[in-house]
Design the sequence.
């Protein structure tokens, strides 16, 4: 075993105590390795710099993996005390460059590195204690509290890899080499690439729910495909092979680039791969912390757009069609290579898990039945956009891990790299990035008849989100008016000033837009990115598309545009953010109105929200709460319900009375009414609910 | 280990193969032992006799435990082919003497013993094969298919015990002794009973959901009680001790008997315990297959009413208050006895699991820390009526195992007997019988200050059943009329003849009563006894009581009587039965009307129902189907849906079209309309659904 990185723990076993020890070792190893990655930064000042303008400074990532544990544990009601609410909001979101990630530096006062280090230590102690004492039966399953610990660990493993990419993108004078991360010394002339035959095969993708290794939600389910014979390149494309493309005017000839690729060229002015550096007319090669002579036989690091451009260039040159392999074709290659999954696969056989190098190595160093680097060295871009397999179900603890990437814009990378470990090096893992992103990724090519399907409108695949789209943007039933519109009307009637409003628990965002008819600026916040992305998509793409269920599995497709809604002039007034109503980031303040629709009975700590909401409002600001008070233990622990129970004296406690008590001296109740809403489940089945609307003016 | 009966298998373990072997051995041992119990019957003709007028003949029980496997496996969609639909309906229900159990012999043509034996063999082969091949991960949990196998095994273990009681009640010339069931030879003068102190204690009942032995649904959950000091009899009450009561006019003096006890005396004319037989002026004692001299030091076998009468007699004599122990007091006794649960407890330490005898034995033979027969020998009646513990949840595969007994009429028996094995001898098992039932049961008494609480109205504790009570008997909402009444009106309008109607899927029975306004006789059938018992209770007790949810856990109690509903003159026209619409017993036929409300999309095989329903109707008979067509895989495997999917050509299949196709040549569609219904979940949350009502006349 490599001394740097342990293999992940299996979910089954015969001894619970032994399993706790294994998890603890694996957690500590992950934590140590992650902190090691930050030793590459020259000094503390570098933590406040960005290597990519579209990303947070390094300090964010340093704190992020620790706060992830706490936020998930709170969310799943495994713990009920935060360690540092402030850290746990500012380090919470902004990993991917999504519309709803707040990356505006002005909104953050970053803490000191030493403070974050101390915080990480506290989280470590808590997690170690939880590993000791959480209920545990084997095998560990998705609904086990220990699954959340494994999720935190594997999440940190991902950031070990992605942080190394960010650090590799830092200026050389901002990083330093450390002894544990040694660069490969082997390099020679690149071997000539050639095409190998892969026989036709029935491919079945997807991991069994009872598999004995941790998996992210996108890995489970089933997908079957029949493949014809195809050919694959023996080696990854080397720097040398790619150089021919660069030298042949590759980055100038727009025929090689599709629309997205041309946009990439325009924005970046790229003329060669990102980790090539021209010094005195010669390309040098950037490793994690150094610049070395071009290793011609190492794989080229490119993004998907560059890889596709190379394929178009080579297709033209050879008068045949090369393309990136699909996800299924990659599996056929994997099978042909006679590879085994962890833990049977020994890490010494490939350039991964930090076993050999902290860099790439020659493309002809690791062979698997004659095909090289099928796993390890660098990730390989596929031509497949990521989707959920049949039977896909989001994991409730991390419902935005996958679904925001099911947008036809995220391409799968396969095979893992020298910086991959944990789930990243498992057979069934599935990671996808936008095509212009850099990872430790290169590519190989195939000649195959299979075409890449390109979808037109992207329909919501998420049933619950579709149901809410129909609820907010669809038809009305039983004569009950659209709830979002009615709420916005009430807000408009009672709010005095109309500068800035907050739609908290905005779901798919309809009320956010409706509020923008009377408020100059409206922010929509929801806990779930699955919902937030709908309002954001309407703004950015000008439409949303979803299904409504008619009977059984029969669906009707619906498409709603900004024009249909007459929102063209409102879209600049709205913005959408992911956020936790019980631990809202400090920059959400100074509202004239806060609308909290059907929110309070879904919060893990509603009182925390009620006590803090007053500070977010301007004087004379108005708070509107709507709720059917459907308290349930799956959302809120019973001891934190605001109503719907009997107190110690046997007296019935109703929610509206608790609101009055909590708001005493802070708010005055100025209006109370019922307001019905109807949510369609099928053409014949509806939820018909009567919210109570209470309107409160800040005293 | 005893050679006759194996200990139950644990749910955990490290080897799946080894676990399959253990389960197979345990299944085969159970099956063999059960068939052994029937060897006690003298010849095949005895299989068609009853030992109790209120019960089925023996052949029913012989077939019942085998059909149980098939019915549960079908119901849980683990298998989809029946072995013998006829056997699987006639051997399905009628174990307990419930209102809804059909015990009318005229409704059955019992098969030959050899046919049932051959059937049992087929079931055995199938179960053995399933044990080999069903998916299995350890530990086995409630939602594992293997749980259903264990359920079938433990169900047969119960019938081993109860069949032995029935056989013991057979005339002596109808039974024969067999070598494996040996009667205890020890007997002497009974020891004088005395009272032992049990110190006050905090008792916590209820089994953890992760316990490593199989449990019935009623065992799980939590119940806590603080007990004061109390005293308990050292021995079970012996035949000798009980004799004093009999000789002191015990069965004549009505002061010793409560209302239910007096009713028992009146019906049975009992003057002594059932297994005492007066021969030439002397009491002899009936064992399983023989009559022996009265073993004075063996425990007396009595029902709960007799045990209570004895306590009243002894209380008067000693001028103190004796009563039966409560469930919690029994646990305190169990703890004081320093007992361990299986498998640590060795069966040689008590008279159970057929280890020593196939009969009782002296009350001073097995001591546990000075208290005798805390487990084993005979069951001991408690004074506690059985209820679900906090957190009780019915197991979906056997939803009428427990809830019909939560009626204040079923008393817990504790401690197990010589004929107990499997779950029956586990610490956490809970079995309850009506007080006049005979089991291998006696009693011990306590002196304690704790009182037995007697409840007045029995409110439905089952949330779903309560919801349906409110739906059928409660208020209307959103201006939508009561669905059951509207359906009955439509039925009355379209049916030509009005002699006999069937309300199939009757739920809590409202439409059954409403149909009785126009039909002379109406049968209500539901798959779930949880529902059937509501209509039956309204008929027998004249009222039903249930809760409706207002907010969170706050409830409103409701009570509805026959008078309120003006059903006093209708109740003789209705009857309620448990039944499976996909495998209805042959005696349900000759209807002028069949009403199937919101049924077809909840059946495991709707087509089977549609194809057979025509034969149940008289010529010109009318079938009414109402359904919102809410197809879901949890009720019906997708390949058996009648609609709501796309066929192999991509064409949408709607349910109404499938109905027309299936009914072609059998029925004519004479009316089609929508009919809404509203089900209240809380004061603010409702299901609002639009059924399609199709009315079909038999051609």
Sequence:
């Amino acid at each position: 075993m490599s001394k740097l990185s342990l293999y992940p723990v299996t979910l089954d076993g015969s001894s619970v105590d032994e399993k706790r020890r294994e998890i603890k070792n694996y957690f500590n190893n992950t934590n140590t390795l992650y902190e090691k990655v930050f030793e590459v930064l020259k000094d503390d000042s570098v933590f406040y710099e960005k290597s990519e303008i579209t990303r947070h400074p390094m300090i964010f990532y340093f704190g992020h993996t620790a706060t992830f544990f706490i936020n998930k544990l709170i969310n799943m009601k495994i713990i009920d005390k935060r360690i540092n609410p402030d850290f746990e909001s500012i380090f919470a979101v902004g990993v991917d460059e999504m519309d709803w990630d707040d990356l505006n530096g002005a909104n953050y006062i970053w803490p000191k590195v030493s403070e974050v280090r101390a915080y990480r230590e506290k989280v470590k102690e808590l997690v170690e204690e939880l590993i000791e004492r959480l209920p545990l039966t084997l095998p560990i399953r998705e609904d086990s509290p220990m699954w959340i610990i494994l999720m935190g660990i594997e999440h940190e493993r991902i950031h070990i890899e992605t942080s190394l990419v960010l650090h590799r993108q830092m200026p050389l004078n901002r990083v330093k080499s450390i002894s544990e991360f040694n660069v490969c010394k082997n390099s020679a002339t690149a071997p000539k690439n050639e095409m190998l035959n892969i026989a036709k095969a029935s491919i079945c993708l997807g991991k069994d729910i009872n598999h004995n290794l941790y998996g992210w939600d996108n890995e489970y389910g089933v997908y079957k495909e029949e493949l014809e014979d195809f050919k694959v390149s023996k080696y990854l494309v080397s720097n040398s092979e790619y150089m021919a493309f660069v030298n042949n005017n590759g980055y100038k000839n727009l025929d090689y680039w599709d629309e997205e690729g041309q946009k990439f060229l325009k924005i970046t002015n790229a003329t060669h791969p990102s980790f090539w550096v021209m010094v005195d007319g010669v390309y040098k090669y950037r490793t994690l912390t150094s610049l070395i002579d071009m290793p011609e036989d190492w794989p080229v690091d490119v993004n998907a757009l560059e890889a596709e451009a190379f394929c178009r260039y080579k297709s033209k040159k050879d008068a045949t069609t090369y393309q990136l392999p699909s996800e299924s074709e990659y599996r056929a290659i994997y099978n042909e290579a006679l590879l085994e999954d962890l833990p049977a696969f020994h890490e010494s056989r490939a350039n991964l898990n930090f076993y050999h190098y902290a860099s790439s190595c020659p493309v002809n160093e690791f062979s698997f039945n004659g095909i090289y680097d099928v796993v390890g060295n660098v990730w390989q871009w596929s031509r497949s956009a990521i989707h959920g397999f049949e039977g896909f179900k989001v994991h409730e603890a991390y419902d935005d891990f996958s679904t925001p990437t099911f947008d036809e814009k995220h391409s799968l990378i396969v095979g893992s790299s020298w910086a991959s470990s944990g789930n990243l090096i498992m057979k069934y893992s599935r990671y996808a990035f936008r095509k212009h992103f850099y990872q430790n990724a290169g590519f190989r090519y195939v000649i195959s008849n299979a075409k890449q399907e390109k979808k037109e409108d992207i329909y919501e695949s998420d049933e619950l989100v579709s149901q809410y789209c129909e609820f907010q943007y669809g038809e009305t039933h039983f004569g009950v008016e659209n709830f979002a519109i009615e709420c916005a009307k009430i807000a408009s009637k009672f709010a005095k000033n109309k500068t800035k409003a907050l739609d908290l628990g905005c779901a798919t965002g309809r009320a956010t837009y409706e509020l923008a008819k009377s408020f100059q600026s409206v922010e929509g916040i929801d806990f779930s990115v699955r919902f937030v992305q709908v309002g954001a998509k309407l703004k950015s793409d000008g439409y949303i598309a979803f299904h409504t269920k008619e009977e059984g599995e029969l669906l009707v497709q619906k498409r709603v545009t900004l024009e249909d809604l007459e929102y063209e002039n409102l879209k600049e007034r709205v913005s959408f953010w992911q956020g936790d109503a019980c631990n809202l980031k400090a920059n959400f303040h100074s509202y004239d109105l806060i609308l909290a629709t059907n929110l309070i009975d879904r919060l893990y700590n509603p009182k925390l929200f009620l006590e803090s909401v007053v500070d977010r409002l301007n004087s004379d600001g108005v708070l509107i709460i709507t709720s059917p008070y459907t308290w349930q233990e799956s959302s809120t622990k019973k001891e934190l319900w605001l109503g719907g129970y009997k107190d110690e004296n046997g007296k019935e406690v109703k929610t509206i009375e608790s609101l009055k008590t909590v708001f005493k001296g802070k708010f005055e109740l100025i209006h109370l009414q019922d307001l019905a809403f109807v949510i369609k489940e099928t053409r014949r089945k509806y939820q018909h609910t009567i919210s109570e609307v209470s309107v409160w003016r800040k005293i």
Q: What stands out?
A: The first strand of chain A starts at residue 195 and ends at 198. The interface with chain B takes residues 12-14, 135, 137-139, 210, 478, 550-554, 628-631, 638, 641, 643-646, 652, 654-655, 678, 681-682, 684-692 of chain A (CB under 8 Å). The CA atoms of residues 30 and 157 of chain A lie 7 Å apart. Chain A has 16 helices and 25 strands.
